[in-house]
Every structure is written in C-alpha cells, then in structure tokens.
Known about the structure:
Chain A is an all-alpha fold and 320 residues long. Chain A has helices spanning 2-29, 33-38, 44-54, 60-72, 86-121, 126-140, 143-157, 182-215, 218-225, 230-259, 261-267, 273-282, 286-314; strands at 170-172, 175-177. Chain A has 13 helices and 2 strands; from the N terminus they run H-H-H-H-H-H-H-E-E-H-H-H-H-H-H. In chain A, strands 1-2 form a two-stranded antiparallel sheet. The mean pLDDT of chain A is 82. Chain B has 3 domains: 1-90 and 175-243, Rossmann fold (3-Layer(aba) Sandwich); 98-171, no CATH class; 288-394 and 469-566, Rossmann fold (3-Layer(aba) Sandwich). Chain B has 20 helices and 20 strands. A 6-stranded mixed beta sheet of chain B has the order 6-7-8-3-9-10, sandwiched between helices. In chain B, strand 1 and strand 2 form a beta hairpin. The model of chain B has no long low-confidence stretch (mean pLDDT 87). The chains are: A mainly alpha (320), B alpha/beta (567). The interface between A and B is medium-sized, with 25 and 34 residues.
Amino acid sequence: MVSYIFRRILQSVLVLLVVGLVAFAMFRFVGDPVDTMLGQERTVQDIERLRESLGLNDPFFVQYWNFLGRALQGDLGISYRQGRPVAEIIAERLPATLELAAVSGTFALLMGIGLGVFTAIRRHGFSANAIMALSLIGVSLPTFLIGILLIYLFAVELRWLPSFGRGETVMVGGWSTGFLTQSGLIALILPSITLGLYQMTLIMRLVRSEMLEVMRQDYIRFARARGLSQRAIHFRHALKNTLVPVITVTGLQLGSIIAFAIITETVFQWPGVGLLFINAIQFVDIPVMAAYLMLISVMFVGINLIVDLLYVAIDPRLRS
Amino acid sequence: MALLEIENLTVQFPTRRETFVAVKDAHLTVEPGQIHGLVGESGAGKSTIGAAVMGLLDPPGKITGGVIRFRGEEISGLDAEAMASLRGRKISMIFQDPLTSLNPLFTVGQQLVETIRAHLHLSETEALARAINLIDRVGIPDARARVNQYPHQFSGGMRQRVVIALALCSEPDVIIADEPTTALDVSIQAQILDLIKGLARERRVGVILITHDMGVIADTTDVVTVMYRGEVVESGPTARVLGAPSHPYTKSLIAAVPRPTVKLHRFPLIDYGGRVTGFAIADLARNWPKSTGERGAPLIEIEGISKRFVSKQAILPSRRGYFTAVDSASFTIRQGEVFGLVGESGSGKSTIARMIAGLYPVDGGTVRYGGRDVTATTRGVPDWYRREIQMIFQDPYSSLNPRMRVDEIVAEPARHHGLLKGQALRNRVAELLDRVGLGAEAGVKFPHEFSGGQRQRISIARALATQPRFLICDEPTSALDVSIQAQILNILKDLQDHLGLTMLFISHDLPVVRQMCDRVGVMKDGKLVEVAETETLFEAPQHPYTQHLLSLMPRLDGLSDEGLAVA
C-alpha cells in the first residue's frame, strides 16, 4: 500500500520533469527572446549583456536546472509583454478559471451520475431514451458552438443572463471570488453549462453502460433474492460498483475541463488563465505559455494521483 | 400440508420470432425438512424453476401456466411488492458461484446487517449481533473479527458459508440452492452439503437442491426430480430413481456418470433425444507423423521444478512476500501414456502445466523433452518444442477468440509455425473439423454459435493443427455436462489410442481421472505427494492425503449399472 502510493508519486514527479523540459525547451526553440525584448534598435553589446544577465549563455542543462529551481520557488519568470512576474499574473487569473471549472465539474458529475442511473434503471422508458438521444447532441456539438447558441438564446433573445465576463467579484484574502455576489453567480451559469455539457454527457453514458453491466452481475441477483429494496439495490450495490471506471474518466475529464476552459473563456470573455494563454500565444509571450503548460500538467498529474488513491478508498480489494 | 407445491408450472420466454418454453408442466413438492433434488443437464429448466419460485425470472420470461403455492397459498400470481416481501424472508436462494454472489465493495457484516434490517425490525446493533451469530452458526470461526472483512478476504468455501448466512437472515422456511457446490473443491463441497443437510434436519427447512451432479444428488437428497428440456421425466425417492430408473433419459444420464469404482474402456454416451455427434479420430492417423520414440519410454522428464509468485509487493526485495505455487516437483511422463495430475484448487496443478508449456518461466529445476532441455525461461521455450505440445483449456467460452472465425482459429497454430499455407492449410482445417465431429462447414461460423461441448471440440481441433505429440489438458471437461463430458473424454481417449498422443491430464474429478489416466500424481500445497499407476492409487493409496481425497469421493454405489455394458 505504502509502496503503491510511493510508486505513483514517483511516476508523477517523472511526468512533471518531462513537461518541465518541454516548457523550458520552448524558450530555446520558439524564437529568440532577446530579439523580442530588444526590438529593432539594438547593438551587439546590448544583446550580449542581456544574454549574460538572462543566463542564456550557460549550458542547456544548467539552464534547465536553474529554471526548475526557480519554478519550484514560484518564480516563473517575467512576462515579455506585460513586464510583470508571471506568477503574479497567473495568481490574478487563476481563481476565475478554478471557480468556473469547479462549478462546471460539479454540474457534470451530479447531472451525469443522476441521469446515468436514471437512464440505466428505466432503460426502456420514453424519457430515458429521449435523454439518450439528446445526449448525442452534447457529445457531438463543439464547445464554442454550444456557447454561442446559449448566448444567443439566453443573453440576446431572452436577456436573462449576461453574455460575457465574471460580474462583480469580491476579494477574499488575495482570491477574487464570484461566488459571493448575485451578478457573479449569474455570470457563472452559461459558461459552466457550456464547459460541462460534454463531460456531463460523457459521464452519463459511461454510468449508464457500467450500471447496465453491473445490474447483470450475480451479486445484484443475489441482492434481489435476499429481498432488498429496489433503492438499496440500485443506489447502494449497483452505483458503488460503477464508480471505479467512472472516477477514472472523470479524473481525466476534470483535467481537461481546466485545460479546455480556453475555448469557453474566449467565447465568454472570461478573465481566466485560458484567455491569458490565448493572448500569450498571440504575442509569443513565452514565459506565460511555459507557466501555463506547467500549471496544467501539475493539475492533471495531481488529479490523477487523487484518482489512484480514490480507487483504493473505494475498492477494498486493492488495499491488501 | 406441503411447504411448497409447484403444479403444472409452465414458463415461457417469448421473443420476436418464437416463444421458447423453458419449463413445461412441471410438478414438484417440498415438505418441511426435506431436501428435494432437481437434476438435469444445462438447458433442462432447473434454474428457471428456482427463479420462477423466487419471482426473479429474467425478462421476457414469465409464468404462463400452473401455480406455485407456499404453505397452501398461491404465490405465483403475486404482484412485485408482495413477492419482494416474501423473498429472502420466507423463501431464500443460494447461487452457484460464491465468488460473484457477494458484493465486493461491502464488508460481510454490512451485507448481513442490511439484509437483516430489510426483513426484521432491529436496530443497527441488534442486527450486527444477529449477523455475528449467523456467521458463527454457519461454521465460520472467529465471527466477531470476520464480520468486518470483505468478501475477497474469505476462501471460496467460507464465502459460500457467508452466502448461506445471508440466506438465513430471517429464518426462511424454504431455501432454493442453485448448484451451491459446483464451484467448490470436494472437501469443501462435503462441508457445505453437510451444512445444508443440518439445516433441513434441525430447522425443518425445505430445500430445493438444483444440481447437475449425480454424486451430490445421491449423497444429499431425499427425493429427486429429473428434468430434460424443460419437462419432468421422472420423480421419486432418490434411492429408487438412481437405483432403478424407469425413464430412458434417466437411464442414459446415470450411465454417463464416470464411476469411481470401475474402469471402462469408453464412456457410455447419452443416446436419448439423438444428441450424440460422432467423430472419427482414427481417420487422422493416416497422415499423422509416426512417433519416433518407443511407447513407454520417458518423453517428458521433470526434475525439481518450482514456481513462486510475489504475494506481497514491496520496494525492497527482502520485504517481499512470496507464495510457493509449485515446490520442487519431479515426475516423468512416458511416451503414449495419459498422466493425471489431481489435487484441490490452488495445489499447483495448472502452474505445473503452464511451466511445461512454457507459459510461465521456471524458478528452479529442469524440464526435458525427448532428452533435450526445454526448461522455460523468461523467453519461453524453443519453437520446435512449441509445435510438439499443445494445450486444451478448461473454459471453452474464454479460450476461443470471439472475433475470429472457427477456421481461422484452427488454422492459426499451423500458420504461426509456418507449417502449411494456402489450400493445404484449408484442407487440414477442414479435415480436423470434420474428424472432431463438427463438419468442415463449421469453419465459417464464429465461436458463439456453438455450445460448450462443440467449442471444446474446436479447441481440440486447434490443438491438433500442428500435429503435436504431447497434449496438456487442463480440466478439459469441468465446465461441461456429463453427457458432453463423456463425448469429449472419448475423443481424448481416441487421440491416445489412434494417434499415440501423450497427455498430461489435469482434473479435480477423481472418477474422471480413474477413467482417463494410466498413471496419476497427487498434488497438495505445491508438492507432489504421490505418483502411482492409476489402479494402484485408487485401490491402495499410500499417502494420507491421497487416502483423505479418495474418502471424500462420492461412492455412487446406489447408481444403476444398467447401460455400462455398452462400453
């Protein structure tokens, strides 16, 4: 058990080192930062001085090592475009993305599991089949189109919900939250649905098929034969057994909710890290791109580590 | 008054094209304290009767005729809610496989408490006390500690005891046991059957015991009902039905049961209803390469082979735990003989087979084939040796790739070794399929279109495709009905007689081993405790463990001898 956790952590660290290498390599191979920073009017001495002060004359692995060391201390470099520390810019933007991801992730999980169980139990019912047919739309429509359709319907035509931005935010200890104001909460609705719809339908379809599979198992038959209630059979015995594969996929999907927030943030002009990243690409702001890449990988790896530990919590067979 | 009466029961499964009648006009009564055996081959409708009584027929199945009465009251027409209140409370059920009957994610105690509280108005603590009491009553030691364990922490036999404890939660009057011991070892089987017998005797529980095993019927039941294709063909006191069967199907069914006491040249086949398909192994002999060795000379010499598996993972090798599956086993298999390996599950029989076949690398010792070293390393065994040996596995459902056509399956080994191609290969495949009794036209079908016995024939055809000299049969008939088993075993005997094949035959079924093998090795906990000529072993076992195993074997003395003479 301890060795299992230890191995998983070791693997996670390895993945992060590789991603760090890729992020770092961007500095070297995606254009020369000195060109970008100094502009047209420059002398050879200027270039040399800047190269020396930025440490660009050191051997590759020394630079990589220094880069990692600084990153660990929270020093992610200085944005070429804004001239401010990248860590500071990200700290400003991250709460917006995390709140959006949290709300849409919760929406996807609750609705996905609920509808999945419903469509599995009533698999021949009309509403279950209707939900299954509709869910195909959720899977097949691209995110930006869903976002634009929602904006058109609820913001432009019905004028119920705002079409862009976070609404009013409140600062709570350096974290700007939209959870505490009415306009902030309202502003979360459309982007969250847009971002979570695909994951929701995916989770729903997965829960449904897993549930149908589990319902065929002997222990479900035996639970019936023991005279347990339908509710206990469906929600206690069957649901818990569907969770292991569902958690696997959900873990990966939560990671991609954060990573793919880019599109939703662009559509809704959501001031999160995704939007920051898009802007950084436009201006070849490499420190921001590298930091974003590493941030996303830390989240992916972290979530998957949690997923692996959750398996053990759910399935006693893995504990021994 | 009878506890449970089933009258004229008919169960149908209507489908779009046709209606399948699973049970037709079945009669059956169970008195308090009586064990009523329900016997027949797969598809006979035994389990359907059990499910109908419980109200647990899988859709679209439904009762279309007859009545089921419990203590004189009709229960077959009850609505789902009324049936649910009866289920588990008055009538309980035990299923075949204790490995899959329990939910793996909940402790045994949680599952017991939830069942108890579903039926009796008890608090959580009272229910737990009752759960511990039940675990104790079904003979699980240290009940107080084990109640907090998960199903995977119990052995197969202990799990079946837990299943029985679950069935006893609210002191039911009737227990329907559907193949309760089929998945268990003989010694465990005897214990579980004793437990069921005790329930009937002491608590006056009426039991319907569904099984395909004549030995279990003979040992356990008071009354037996024999079913064939949904119909009851014969019913009466067990001793009378088994000793002097009157219906031809019962006669042929009893004749096909392998006897522990007498060795026959060939198994009598069930000829009722025209289900015997012929085979012609002798015809294969014309093109079969002549064996080089002399009959009776050593073909495989195994010296001190061992295998251990890591049972506890750890980073430091010194802290890893190991489980020794095979502990320094030595024996010799002679050219042309069938060598049997017997023992309970986990004794290492299959591990030995896999090491000989090169599927597991050997941790110690050597394997020699025809005098040449073929000990399996991590890179497996030499190619020439692979061609010489083939395996037939226990489960004919999972040992054939469902996405491949049968002719591709049979052709694959020969193609892999580059022995034949094109028309010659097609001819070989057609010939093999024909000779094992499937017909060459079976080649274009997929495995799921065949029954278990037919699939095992496909496995045999596949094993013969490289014209091997040595076959490893790992429980080849354990998953099959007795009539099908008789056919498969006769094919294997023909392979030995006509093609001169040498075989390693692994089984836990002692009567089958006596019929099949020339010499037998007995395994216990990874060790080979005794090797002897089959007749010597059965008549005068030397090792105490062999004596113990043989004492557990059902004697089947009461079975009619009619039909055995046809052999």
